[in-house]
Amino acid sequence: MAHLQLTALAGGADDEMEEVALLGSYDVEAGAVDEEAGMRRVQVRVAGMTCSACTGAVEAALSARRGVRRAAVSLLQNRAHVVFDPELAKDEDIVEAIEDAGFEAEILPDSTVSQPKSQKTLSGQFRIGGMTCAACVNSVEGILQKLPGVKRAVVALATSLGEVEYDPSAISKDEIVQAIEDAGFDAALLQSSEQDKVLLSVSGLHTEGDVDVLHDILKKIEGLRQFGVNFANSEVEIVFDPEVVGLRQIVDTIEMESSDRLKAHVQNPYLRAASNDAQEASKTLHLLRTSLLLSIPVFFIRMVCPHIPLVSSSLLMHFGPFRIGDLLKWILVSVVQFVVGKRFYVAAYRALRHGSTNMDVLVVIGTTASYVYSVCALLYGAFSGFHPPIYFETSAMIITFVLFGKYLEVLAKGKTSDAIKKLVELAPATALLLMKDKEGKYLGEKEIDASLVQPGDALKVLPGSKIPADGFVIWGTSHVNESMVTGESVPISKEISSPVIGGTMNLHGVLHIQATKVGSGTVLSQIISLVEIAQMSKAPIQKFADYVASIFVPIVITLSLLTFLAWFLCGWLGAYPNSWSAETSNCFVFSLMFSISVVVIACPCALGLATPTAVMVATGVGANHGVLVKGGDALERAQNVQYVIFDKTGTLTQGKATVTTAKVFSGMDLGEFLTLVASAEASSEHPLAKAILDHAFHFHFFGKLPSEKESIKKRKEEILSQWLLDVADFSALPGKGIQCWINGKKILVGNRALITENGVNIPDEAEHFLVDMELSAKTGILVAYDDGFIGLIGITDPLKREAAVVVQGLKKMGVHPVMVTGDNWRTAQAVAKEVGIEDVRAEVMPAGKADVIRSLQKDGSVVAMVGDGINDSPALAAADVGMAIGAGTDIAIEAADYVLVRNNLEDVITAIDLSRKTFSRIRWNYFFAMAYNVVAIPIAAGALFPFTGVQMPPWLAGACMAFSSVSVVCSSLLLRRYTKPRLTTVLQITVE
């Protein structure tokens, strides 16, 4: 399971970093492999989609396929994410479904960089040597089943094999092997159910013999499940078991076994996608150039040459029955219509074959009508001697302008994914591997591809270079700029045992780090995956646009036919002067030009691009500002937030609880009292328990510890094991405290409710002391031992510096802040007063937080919840918008819609403001797209012609259509200029 290490817990320099999984269950929700349900997810590259009608056709084709549970198609990314039952459908069936819908499809290989691993159980097969009887089997099974993270273990004596189901996030294969060996048996992993798929580019594949050599090498590699060699592209796709063989080992084996004739390199899926985008842009540009070169002569022959007598007379000369000028236009336009414009015919055919319509259908109808009429007019003139006007330039110019618009659109859409590209570029291309022998002696350095770094590798990071993987420092000191990942602008000091994040910049000293998480496990990869998944999602508002797009083309074709009939019948009945149609020779051609203009000027693409482009840009911008959004639906809900509920501990406060007071109300010595309480709390994972333990430890051993960090940690562990008292029957009581037995007597440590429920009387002196503490925003911990009250401990958790200003800022934005906490009323009221929150809900159990949210939602209000702890996850899930503080627990982050990576409350305002700005932009996009079609179609139909006498030529209508979708994309790109709201602006404070 991939984790994210961001901020240290409270309690001193020797604290471990808290681990946070950014994705977790969200992967399953978004379509990752769900082991329990047996579902499989694939990403498919889909070529040929032009508008939301195309995405709808692909989604419909996939959803209709047997075994497919869910399909999400992104027009901008040209991708489909498909979740299906592998027992009912295969990858080939998914490709076939898309191709049957009229589009090209290619299953994308999973990447060790881009694909998040969901938390799941692996099944590993181990060889176990040294077993002689059933007693050995029982012994090994018993040992395995007691290991943390092991779900099931079965050992067979006859085959000397053991099959173990285990959680890889809790225990590794090496730890299982070590446990078996510690029991006196030999052990080794043979294979596991885990598998990775990766695409390697192989240089040196020149002949069929080279392919045979590569086949022979790959067949011998243990742990390689399957492979396929693409000789044409010099690529090999491999599926391997990472528990048995590492990617670096595969690459090294290919090079060694081929005597360096063949060299393999891991293909980065994002660079490959960028290459595909570049190819599409290059292909569109080539078609545009060809169309332009052929259309310019046609335009000159039609518009310019008639005004040059010598040229005009030459073009009017006959070649057989045809005039030379007309014949040249026919030849040039035929190439444009059927060679350059082939893509429109193919796409239109695919769409119509499956009962859908798109922009290509409109382009084909408009250009074909113009072309066919012109050919008929040309042939009629050749054989009758009467030459009606021909409009070859119309179809040529329409295709040219549409291609120009498509090219600009491809370039503009590429800009919307700049955030992903920037994040990908953060990862370094290479890493310096410190090579060591089996005894750990240093042998030298080797530069390797960063994608080949494996967990446990020792890496050297030079000043000014990027850290290749997540891990921790094993030698050296330096400062690291982590702003590109966490948004924290101040360089962070790093020394031995300090955690480091892959992709961040080492500024000064040389560091040796040990990699702990690579590939999909790194923070950077999780952020990339989260942003990518969010960009694939559809906001609810887009459903309206998809519906309009699905009926748009039939409506436009109907309007075009009505336009033709109206003008033609009016002309035939003499309802308008003959002079109006004199320029086009007759009312049929006059009416046809209006009809073609209507078909060509209408643009369904602008509607389809209005939402996804804005969501794509917004999620990328949010990631750059440390706000990770889990999709367009979360963005849409956040714009209407009316209540923001804050948890107190770790959200409004720093989460660094410290003991300020310890008072004994019995004859017990203070040191003995602290030892007793610390022993009881040592088994608890609550932050307050840790604060009590640290306070008691420093009370007893202050000044008696060595100065070196590593020595302090080691010495502290030794002291704790010897100093604390033995505890029996420990139990945690949620929302109350803990109870256990020490020296045969029951001890209670917790709040007032826990003490009174157990029939222990609190002395008046202690009660007054407790009330005074609570009124000063301190939490009182009461202690009872052997059914008698013995003392209390006062704990304070300082507020975050920005808490009060953020609360005031939310009020200015029209959002009502609420504080919900499990703490007592007096402490809660004191903290709320300090930050400026009037609405307080105290002494609320974890499940009760969700009830508070539901009570606020009854009147239809949109409620956001900001939290960081496990106890906040039900509330985060119940809220309309869940916001998890980035330093919180992985469960809280899984339940949230937003992840505030920087652990800064200011980002709550950023998240709400970004969603408001995004949907304001989306509404403008829809307004422009709808207004364009509402205004442009009547103009193209000739609504203004009776008053102005100006008719819009079809080629000009094509130009307008081409630029309409480009304008919507460019409108969305304005979101890239988004800047976080300054609190001084939100609060309307004038800074002098």
TrEMBL record:
<dbReference type="InterPro" id="IPR023299">
    <property type="entry name" value="ATPase_P-typ_cyto_dom_N"/>
</dbReference>
<keyword id="KW-0812">Transmembrane</keyword>
<feature type="domain" description="HMA">
    <location>
        <begin position="122"/>
        <end position="188"/>
    </location>
</feature>
<dbReference type="InterPro" id="IPR023298">
    <property type="entry name" value="ATPase_P-typ_TM_dom_sf"/>
</dbReference>
<dbReference type="GO" id="GO:0016020">
    <property type="term" value="C:membrane"/>
</dbReference>
<dbReference type="GO" id="GO:0046872">
    <property type="term" value="F:metal ion binding"/>
</dbReference>
<dbReference type="GO" id="GO:0006811">
    <property type="term" value="P:monoatomic ion transport"/>
</dbReference>
<dbReference type="InterPro" id="IPR006122">
    <property type="entry name" value="HMA_Cu_ion-bd"/>
</dbReference>
<dbReference type="GO" id="GO:0005524">
    <property type="term" value="F:ATP binding"/>
</dbReference>
<dbReference type="InterPro" id="IPR027256">
    <property type="entry name" value="P-typ_ATPase_IB"/>
</dbReference>
<feature type="domain" description="HMA">
    <location>
        <begin position="196"/>
        <end position="262"/>
    </location>
</feature>
<dbReference type="Pfam" id="PF00403">
    <property type="entry name" value="HMA"/>
</dbReference>
<dbReference type="InterPro" id="IPR036412">
    <property type="entry name" value="HAD-like_sf"/>
</dbReference>
<keyword id="KW-0472">Membrane</keyword>
<feature type="transmembrane region" description="Helical">
    <location>
        <begin position="389"/>
        <end position="408"/>
    </location>
</feature>
<dbReference type="InterPro" id="IPR001757">
    <property type="entry name" value="P_typ_ATPase"/>
</dbReference>
<feature type="transmembrane region" description="Helical">
    <location>
        <begin position="544"/>
        <end position="568"/>
    </location>
</feature>
<keyword id="KW-0479">Metal-binding</keyword>
<dbReference type="InterPro" id="IPR036163">
    <property type="entry name" value="HMA_dom_sf"/>
</dbReference>
<dbReference type="Pfam" id="PF00702">
    <property type="entry name" value="Hydrolase"/>
</dbReference>
<dbReference type="InterPro" id="IPR018303">
    <property type="entry name" value="ATPase_P-typ_P_site"/>
</dbReference>
<keyword id="KW-0186">Copper</keyword>
<protein>
    <recommendedName>
        <fullName>Protein HEAVY METAL ATPASE 5</fullName>
    </recommendedName>
</protein>
<feature type="transmembrane region" description="Helical">
    <location>
        <begin position="330"/>
        <end position="349"/>
    </location>
</feature>
<keyword id="KW-0677">Repeat</keyword>
<comment type="similarity">
    <text>Belongs to the cation transport ATPase (P-type) (TC 3.A.3) family. Type IB subfamily.</text>
</comment>
<feature type="transmembrane region" description="Helical">
    <location>
        <begin position="955"/>
        <end position="975"/>
    </location>
</feature>
<keyword id="KW-0067">ATP-binding</keyword>
<feature type="transmembrane region" description="Helical">
    <location>
        <begin position="588"/>
        <end position="610"/>
    </location>
</feature>
<keyword id="KW-0547">Nucleotide-binding</keyword>
<keyword id="KW-1278">Translocase</keyword>
<dbReference type="InterPro" id="IPR059000">
    <property type="entry name" value="ATPase_P-type_domA"/>
</dbReference>
<feature type="transmembrane region" description="Helical">
    <location>
        <begin position="361"/>
        <end position="383"/>
    </location>
</feature>
<dbReference type="InterPro" id="IPR044492">
    <property type="entry name" value="P_typ_ATPase_HD_dom"/>
</dbReference>
<keyword id="KW-0813">Transport</keyword>
<dbReference type="InterPro" id="IPR008250">
    <property type="entry name" value="ATPase_P-typ_transduc_dom_A_sf"/>
</dbReference>
<keyword id="KW-0406">Ion transport</keyword>
<dbReference type="InterPro" id="IPR017969">
    <property type="entry name" value="Heavy-metal-associated_CS"/>
</dbReference>
<dbReference type="Pfam" id="PF00122">
    <property type="entry name" value="E1-E2_ATPase"/>
</dbReference>
<dbReference type="InterPro" id="IPR006121">
    <property type="entry name" value="HMA_dom"/>
</dbReference>
<feature type="transmembrane region" description="Helical">
    <location>
        <begin position="926"/>
        <end position="949"/>
    </location>
</feature>
<keyword id="KW-1133">Transmembrane helix</keyword>
